[in-house]
Protein 1
Amino acid sequence: MSQTVVTRFAPSPTGFLHIGGARTALFNWLYARGRGGRFLLRIEDTDRARSTPEATQAILDGMAWLGLQHDGEVISQNARAERHRAVALELLDKGEAYKCFSTQDEIEAFRETARAAGRSTLFQSPWRDADPASHPDAPHVIRIKAPRDGATVIRDEVQGDVTIRNDQLDDMVLLRSDGSPVYMLAVAVDDHDMGVTHVIRGDDHLNNAARQMLIYQAMGWPLPAYAHIPLIHGPDGKKLSKRHGALGVDEYQKMGYPAAGMRNYLARLGWSHGDDEFFTDEQALAWFDLSGIGKSPARFDFKKLENLCGRHIAATPDAALLHELHGFLAAIGRPPLSDAKSALMEQAMPCLKERAKTFVELLEKAEFVLTDRPISPDEKAAAQLDDVSRRILKELTPHLQNATWARDELEAVAMQFAESMDMKFGKLAGPLRAALAGRSVTPSVFDMMIVLGREETVARLTDAACESG
Ligand code: GLU
């Protein structure tokens, strides 16, 4: 079968793009993109009271940050209400749906009687087979004529065959009495019209699939493939809560996780490819398959996320990392870097990205680049700059000033100097960090010297040596 794969992400814009939604989007993106297919975005905004433009924007921003570019226009489900209505009327014409004039009271009375008699309380409308000539001129809904016997089998790519007896499915309403289409109809019609071949979504929608299939079947449309993914749980196996990380993806961006690490981690959340933990987008695109999706809920684990993010930061080219850092600064509301600082940052990147798991950590290490003279050391660094160490710095400075500005040379000069003073180099490192960065945790002092250059290094050392304590 050489049909082009079409997937979609269909969030309801009623809040932020949470981590579960982001994973669903990613799975759909990976599946389509890895097969030369199309990945569509549909905003399910039919609930007018709860849908907000801000939530739609948050979804678009979150997807942009994660690099999940969709194809074509964003589809608004609400804007397609006329089409949904038309399909209901078509089903009516075909005899696959009917007008039901039962009132709420009558439906309640039916249920009461059924309950008392120990029968199923699913409503069975007396209008299902009524002669249209007997129809009153009164408000009515349009119901689908669901099969009464047999079973509906969802051939799910993750869950296997899920069988639902048809006597468990009622003649669901397609159009309400005010003519508005119901959500279930909208989803089926949109998926069909958008040419969706694979519906990949959370398994909280598994039951809906049976109902949506009834609409497909009544219209004579070919069914899409279904893949219902188990939801994400917290590390304790319970439903994911805020404390566990059920946050908007924008929060993850603000915590400084790189998008590539996030994609890698989210891909592993419920899907696996052998023992592979760390992989590139190219590998994920080549490997991703529905058969690798697990049947039990994945557990969210910040430690794993951090670990993968650290590895992605280390593996990302410096210029790309700098670019993403600019985005991070904007996301946390920090002013942009000047061109000069950007250039220095890129130069410093090789030593900054070592062992940084987030952009927050990377920025901490970058303090020596971001700060300007005169440097005000933090408390720990200030403690390193006592009279003795300032004197030592003063003596060391001319040696460095005359050295060739290369890492090996600087290291050799510092070692020699330490030896001549009969001290361990380690003793020198603290004051040097304090003088160069104003911090006690920094990249290696020699890396900092190389990035800062001779003039700035000597100036910072001189400042520190001369400060009266
Ligand atoms: N709008 C639904 C949700 O946000 C998804 C519906 C679907 O994927 O079919 O949960």
Note: Residues 10-12, 44, 187, 201, 205 surround glutamic acid (CB under 6 Å).
Protein 2
Amino acid sequence: MTDPVIIGSERSEVGLPSGIAVLRRGGSALDAAEAAMRVCEDNESDHYVGTGGLPNARGEVELDASVMVGSTRAFGAVGGVKGFPNPISIARAVLERLPQHCLLVGEGAELFAEECGFTRAVLLTEEARRLYLEALGQDDEPVEGEGEGATAGDRRYRRTASALMRRLAPHAGPWGTINVLALDAAGELCVAVSTSGYPWKYPGRVGDSALPGSGNYCDLRHGGAACTGRGEMAMRACGARRVVDLLASGMGPAEACAAMLRDARSLPDPFAAELRALALTPDGRHGGAAGTPGSVYAFMTPDHAEPELLPREPVA
Ligand code: GLY
């Protein structure tokens, strides 16, 4: 019998109590991680997951999510899904009901979600739309040589959208993808990741959160890991898989996360936004690292009434 634990990235605190409730009554790590994540996805004041997520450059909310189970390394994911508020549950359905595949994107993922009976919803909230319009209005200087034949509106759109994409800057305030990692009493480990991705991203851009080894990896022999922040760097560094490999080599969770972040940082990247990582081992040790001092993650055991915040190791 293993002592259950659940951990999560910044802003997972709203969901972790639902996850630990599942673990407390002997439920599975997969059920716990999904339950916790669904609450996060439904939190409209969070602009980086589910309903209320910030949209792509065209003003549409596109969501990525994945789940991975440690004992089987089974993986289910969706990318670029529009119109469904809980992509984590669609990712789980891919894992359980479509075992011939691991990842569905766009229209196909939406078709599958419909077939599974998931309900459509409008995801762009008034507040997210306001932030989008505010950002869209920022770059209004004419650019030389803009395409002829386009309307003034088209030209303005292209100019502002590409400037926004170049900048890829998140708005001020708490930001980032959500990771939830759960270990159940039976000793199973599960990692769940959900995101609306980079704000104002190019339509169709899928980030690390949907990709095994990049934003999510879970191997019961060594541990699970997940990333938040600049997904392109998690993809280039194979961040989550790298952390698990470092756990396998004997490093502790925080140390493994920090080593991976240092490696990712050594890569050239003109956008150089922050990447963060979290890890949980099969014997219940956990830790995280981040580029910003003072960063934290949340954790709960069945004895916790509410989430406790722990420091991540800062990576200078
Ligand atoms: N880490 C989330 C993303 O880049 O989409």
Note: The longest strand covers residues 74-81.
